């Protein structure tokens, strides 16, 4: 069942959820959860909401450049209160440059997490998907920081709330060191992130669904099932390697994955443009 194959009786609830999240983003003011509209377990409705919001962003000029996988770490699942991954869409206007200063005013309730990002060299629309197939589709990997953000007040989310809200996407930054999979093993990486010079998060490749390649395979299978397979050139944020941390105005975040190097981003003080 694709995201567009939704029973007509559910359209009003989908419309209401789209309107609530869209208004929250436009006003930069978090809204109430949408599970009162679409339920807390119906992922088909949640992805239908996400699809509608994605289409609206594309219609206003945003370009899709990949996907993000969320909720892959037990630590993150525990923090958020869910038990399975989800995914969202990456747009070109979400990307920030490594080492840059990002505007804080555009964010609502930001948190940061460190991930491995994969860039694909071939489509993943093959009949038989397995770990070997997805490994062969990876051109290279880089260290990444994802700034997750929620249009839902107080991060009071269930799985359907975050899926509808584009998997709580905000922004992301990619490191500059590109490594092929014959140069390192994602499962073996270690990660530390500092916030203003203090270590605030650490983890390993095993903290991401047991192996970030497992996360990429999960996304490839899910995307193919929904009729939107991963394509050559896509950037895929594979999921957190450790706990996420709150982001404040003026923060400086630096993540280090020895195999992939470091990546950093800073934030302006509120009321000041980057």
- Give the averaged pLDDT, no decimals: 92
Structural class: alpha+beta
Characterize the largest beta sheet: strand count, sense, and whether it forms a barrel.
8 strands, mixed
CATH homologous superfamily label? Fumarylacetoacetase-like, C-terminal domain
State the helix count: 7
Would you report the number of β strands?
A: 13
What is the highest CATH level, the class?
Alpha Beta
Number of domains: 1
Per CATH, the architecture is Alpha-Beta Complex
Along the chain, the helix and strand elements come as HHHEHEEEEHEHEEEHEEEE
Instruction: Write down the overall geometry.
Output: globular
> What share of the residues lie within helices?
25-40%
Low-pLDDT segments: none
- Portion of residues in beta strands equals 25-35%
> Could you name the CATH topology?
Fumarylacetoacetate hydrolase, domain 2
List keywords for this structure.
globular, five-stranded mixed sheet, alpha+beta, 13 strands, Fumarylacetoacetate hydrolase, domain 2, eight-stranded mixed sheet
Describe the fold and architecture.
This protein has 274 residues and is α+β, with helices and mostly antiparallel strands. The chain has a single domain (64-267), classed as Fumarylacetoacetase-like, C-terminal domain (Fumarylacetoacetate hydrolase, domain 2, Alpha-Beta Complex). It is 26% helix and 28% strand. The strands form two sheets. Strands 1, 2, 3, 5, 6, 7, 10 and 11 form an eight-stranded mixed β-sheet that branches. Helix 1 (11-27) crosses helix 3. The radius of gyration is 18 Å and the shape is globular.
